[in-house]
Structures are given as C-alpha cells and as structure tokens.
Write a structure and sequence with these properties.
By secondary structure, the protein is mainly beta. It has one domain. The protein contains no helices and 13 strands. The strands form three sheets. It has a five-stranded parallel sheet, with no helix packed on it. A four-stranded parallel sheet has the order 2-5-8-11, with no helix packed on it. Strands 3-6-9-12 form a four-stranded parallel sheet, with no helix packed on it. It starts with a strand and ends with a strand.
Length: about 100
C-alpha cells in the first residue's frame, strides 16, 4: 500500500493481517481508531507515513514479528505508537504532538 491519502475513517486507516507487506508514503488523518494496525503478521515494513489526529498512530499487536518501522511521523494523536509484537526495528520516526 503506497501513496494513499486516507481521511476520516470510522475504524483503522490501514489494517494488515497478511505477511510481507510494505506500507509506505501514506497520509492518514482522523482515523476512528488506529492509523496503521498490524495484527498477527510478519515481515511488514512501515515507512515514511504521516499519521495525525487519530486515536492511535501505529499499533503492532501481539503475535506480529519481524516488523520494520522507519521514517514515520505520528503526531497530534491520542497515542502515537503501541507495540505488543516482538521487538520491531525502529529508526528515524517522529512521535509526539
């Protein structure tokens, strides 16, 4: 999923359960729950996304493995990142209001 603009969703802006996906260059604003939500998947790259005014910017659920989270901006959300999955690799992200 690349280069999308997602605005004012009732639920998650992007919800992924499939393995080995790249979520890159998306703008997500005002999602009803999570901007990006990974549920029990593996090998997902979340890169260079902008997530604002959502309940939670990025959520990585338990059972999710081998995730890379780099270069994302998540701000002005109720919460910016929640990780229950196994030790994602993170670098160069900007979280906070």
């Amino acid at each position: 999923m690349k280069g999308n603009t997602i605005v004012n969703t009732g639920l998650s802006g992007i919800f992924v359960t499939a393995k080995r996906n790249v979520i890159q260059g998306n703008t997500i604003d005002q999602s009803g729950s999570r901007g990006i939500f990974l549920s029990q998947t593996e090998g997902v790259i979340i890169k260079d996304n902008i997530i604002t005014r959502s309940e939670l910017g990025i959520q990585i659920s338990a059972g999710t493995t081998n995730t890379v989270v780099i270069g994302n901006i998540a701000g002005n959300n109720v919460g910016d990142i929640s990780v229950q999955g196994e030790d994602p690799i993170t670098a160069g992200n900007v979280f906070g209001n």
